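Quick one, T. Sequence first:
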Amino acid sequence: MSFARAFAATLQHEGGYSNNPKDKGGETYMGIARNKHPLWEGWPIIDACLHAGHALSLAPGLTDLVREFYRTEFWQPLSCDHIDVVSPEVAEELFEASVNCGPGNGTKFLQRALNALNARERFYPDLVVDGIMGPKTLQAVTMCLRKRSPRLLVRCQNGEQYLHYKAWSQHEDFPGVFGRT
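Structure tokens:
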């Protein structure tokens, strides 16, 4: 796995341009919400294309800006390159959950999953579930995967993400949103 593969998988679910007034995310392009990332460099290009009636898919450089956004906002800060060496599947799941639920939540899902698989602190000290990807969380990933399968850890991450979606206030969108995981 690599960033390229995780990015490609994410784009399969994020789609193109959307501006649904019922969606809390508001105006989005390929999963980037304007209300959360108003200074993203792609918005002026999108505004110009929409104003001129041009297809966004033809805008030069827009996909490159999206790719760089996901790399710098999610992949790198979450140390996915480090996790990818140990388990590509866990890195991709962390990336996907963080894109859909926020980096803090994606990290909390991983931390809770690591604690659940820790056999009452037999493998490493339980983590503080703080949503911060630090050296203790990274070390716990490595230690956990010496004893547990990546598939099991990913399933636990998905379970945590499910609980997050289940509590989400936009229940009418639950099947579509959960289908992204």
